Amino acid sequence: MPADVAVIILTGGAGVRLGGADKATLALRDSSPLRMIVASLPADCDIVVSGPPLPLLREVAFRQEEPSGGGPVAGIAAALTDVQAPIVGVLAVDMPWSVPVLLSALDQLGDAPDVDVVVPIDRDGRRQPLCCAWRTEILRTCLPDHPRDASVRDLLSRAIVREFTPEADNLLDDIDTPEDLERAITRSDP
Question: What's the CATH number for 5-182?
Answer without folding.
Answer: 3.90.550.10
